[in-house]
Amino acid sequence: MEAFMDTLTTINQRHAIRNYTGAKPTTEQLKQILTAAESAPVAMGQFERYHLTVIEDPDTLAAINTAAAAAFHGDGGPMLYGAPVFVLVSVDANGGELSNADYSSAAIIAHTMALAATDLGLGTCYIWGAVAGLVQSPDTVAQLQLPAGFVPTCGITLGPTTEQYAPRPVDEHRIGVTQL
Ligand SMILES: Cc1cc2nc3c(=O)[nH]c(=O)nc-3n(C[C@H](O)[C@H](O)[C@H](O)COP(=O)(O)O)c2cc1C
Fold first, then answer.
1. For the chain, domain boundaries
2. Ligand 1 test: best mutation among 72, 80, 105, 128, most atoms within 8 Å of CB?
3. pLDDT tens digits for 96-151?
4. CA 125–ligand 1 middle distance (angstroms)
């Protein structure tokens, strides 16, 4: 599938999309996004410590949504925004605690997928809140069949959207910068 943005355009136009048509991404789109994930860097090149779970099964999506909502406010709200696909990034904690580099690597994998999805014109949103809720429900985590010792850290929703990507004005000072 042909990309239609250059990198800086993709970075500028990407924004969090929380509305989905309900249609699924094509197999080819999903493959390209997963290939992008496999291109992402991870700390110390320890790729074997990261795992992606591509969740399209409606019952599993609903279970994650319910577990996440229960952890936050209990009303079963749309923590995954009704997206048809959720890609979860998990990391091998090896029985201990995850490090800053572990979380950062997982985030970079997620962001790489989000940029690829944007480039393909698909909607995508970073999902940390729902994953924080998910990990409080061991029964739901067990349904995900993660490799032993792996812990969910973050993910992205994916799906076609009616929202358009368009040039965005960027406030150049919203993140503080010191130049020395
Ligand atoms: C680390 C991280 C975690 C985020 N977690 C969530 C989340 O759980 N749910 C959500 O709807 N958006 C989440 N977001 C999206 C941010 O709210 C969003 O990117 C930010 O408000 C800037 O908006 P933009 O992405 O449209 O530029 C997250 C973004 C990042 C970088």
1. 21-159
2. 128
3. 999 999 999 999 999 999 999 999 999 999 999 999 999 999 999 999 999 999 99
4. 7
* Atom of ligand 1 lying closest to residue 81 CA: 11
Cα(96)–Cα(80) distance, integer angstroms? 28
Q: What is the pLDDT, as a whole number, of residue 155?
A: 98
The CATH code of domain 21-159 reads 3.40.109.10
* Residue 78 confidence (pLDDT): 87
In the sheet that holds 50-55, the strands lie side by side as: 50-55, 85-92, 150-159, 123-127
Q: Is 174 helix (H, G, I), strand (E, B) or coil?
A: coil
Of 138, 178, 134, 176, the residue nearest 155 (C-alpha):
134
Confidence check: pLDDT of 73 > 90: no
Overall average pLDDT of the 148-171 stretch? 97
Q: Which residues contact 134 (CB under 8 A, 6 or more apart)?
A: 64, 67, 68, 71, 140, 141, 152
The pLDDT tens digits for 16-48 are 999 999 999 999 999 999 999 999 999 999 999
Ligand 1: centre distance to CA 156 (Å): 10
Q: What angle do CA 114, 110, 178 make, to 5 degrees?
A: 90
Reported as type and span, the H/E element at residue 172 is: none
Say how many Å lie between the CA of residue 16 and the centre of ligand 1.
6
